[in-house]
């Protein structure tokens, strides 16, 4: 196309206040063509005055709308900060948040192979971008455990981990909101020029400035953020301020930066001086305010040239982080490479706030099949940024920034495509600031409040369900708890009664049996063979031991009987326990019921071998004679008795009687001795049996042993009783602990539901207010 064509086109655009250079190419429904230059008729003075007046009215309305929307957004940002602070405080305190799982698949980008540019632009003209107010996915507060992929394993994380992750997200959002508030309140606008490595970002900035300021080369050059500002902000001086710490920078304080000469700028930018975090370049623009973007006479503009996204991970992260400070993003993409993965991730991340991205497809003149290039790139944009795709005619430009003439004082006109880009960028940044500066802030608030709504509604619903479930559980568990309280005392009394009855029975049985054993203890000596008079002492010892062993045997039989009775009683008691407490093992061991009993022993003495007591007949006769003597004495009188005794003594004193006394006494003594010796076996048996019985009776041995057996039985039965008591008490304590936990959980769930209901109510109200903020002057004018 010839230069005369550009000049004719320039005369057409001169009638428009917003255009300086040639008309830009437009994309119609059929194909991509450039508009033909057509000379417009010269407007009359009346028409010009009317248009000027209307333009001023529109500008005034735009300014009023901007300031009103700005103040509303600042107020809403403050309210959102308070809401996020309350939510974060609750999350870290009494109300840790539950994170709902995403219901949508991860974003994917596919290349279109069929749609042509006309169809894409036709769809864009009829597409209006609206935020998805019913999306259950989280945009800003979403948890991504893997870069670029939504995690599906969040349920596997602990509650505290989810709480910490959400708290980090909220803290990040709070910092973002504070910077967003400062950015909205700031009257200036920051334009970030970013893109992939070696896509021509610095060349594009130079083309906008019409000056060769930033170094550009076929190789990547920019390794540091370069912010270009109007030199009027630095008292008209062109300087480069190398800033070690961005937060401490103060133009009026030379200690916060180093001044670098313009001729050294290439070296500082390309060689990556790590001590500098940013360069502020104050540059003059000799063009008038209608032509210059920096020196526009409306607002202060900062053009920020960034390192390439895929330079390295540190610089890429830094570019991502700068978004919160940026009003307008100009994304430069190489027409040769299209959108790379790093570029796609940047646009996905930017979509949380900036729905409209100004996209520059650079080096378009080197493409042979331009229609195919446009089709593919527009399809990528459609998937990456639907709002940008919908306004592609204003926001997407295919240019070659390297062809712009940068010679000082040159009168050569720019190519129509670049002139159109300048006009649309100027309109986007300056004339439609409500859209370029306020809409991103509004969109971020909408997305954040939608996320808060989703989280609040999910947590309110879950807490309400938890409270209902806990309340129902308490109601269902109450009868079982009351049943345990009722059976506790009743069962213990029943167990005690059964055990005491069994112990009493064991004691009575033992007492009766052992008394019988003592009465029949003489049977123990029948098995002992009499060894003769010479071993009669050993015989006596054997009799004593035999009776002792016989009684011990009977005691052991009673112990066995007690074990059987105790075992039966344990079974009954255990059944009583399992009826209410479920199955559990018997803890008592009946084999430990009795220890080895101490036997009853008697000592064999010499008197045990002689039994001088007459037998029953002699004893009876002696008793009868004695009784008769007493009766006769009473009957005859005392004198007669004395006379009789005197007569007997006289007889004994006679010589005949004296002669027979000694033999008779000797024979009687021998007979008595023979009797004693012959009766010694029976005498010792009688004496030891009697002695053993007396010992058992006098020492209370039977009562002691029966009491001991009963006591040991009671111990065994009490073990099972204590086990039941402990199990009942533990069951009651477990019930009470569980009920206390459930009650506390129900109360906590109720408070949590009320807290998130309050957050939800506030966020919904605030969301409605934010959505009412005007960010499109066309709608307000309509």
TrEMBL record:
Record-level GO cellular component terms: mitochondrial outer membrane
Q: Which reaction does it catalyse?
A: GTP + H2O = GDP + phosphate + H(+)
The UniProt transmembrane annotation reads: 660-678
**Which Pfam families does the UniProt record give?**
Dynamin_N
Q: Which InterPro entries does the entry mention? A: Dynamin_N (IPR045063), G_DYNAMIN_dom (IPR030381), Mitofusin_fam (IPR027094), P-loop_NTPase (IPR027417)
Q: Where is this region: Disordered?
A: 27-63
UniProt keywords (A-Z) are:
Coiled coil, GTP-binding, Hydrolase, Membrane, Mitochondrion, Mitochondrion outer membrane, Nucleotide-binding, Transmembrane, Transmembrane helix
Give the Gene Ontology MF terms in alphabetical order: GTP binding; GTPase activity
Q: Which Gene3D superfamilies match?
A: P-loop containing nucleotide triphosphate hydrolases
Task: Tell me where in this chain the Dynamin-type G domain is found.
Answer: 185-458
As for membrane topology, the entry says: Multi-pass membrane protein
Q: Where is the composition biased (Low complexity)?
A: 36-50
Tagged with keyword Metal-binding: no
* Stated name of the protein: Dynamin-type G domain-containing protein
Source organism of the structure: Rhizopus delemar
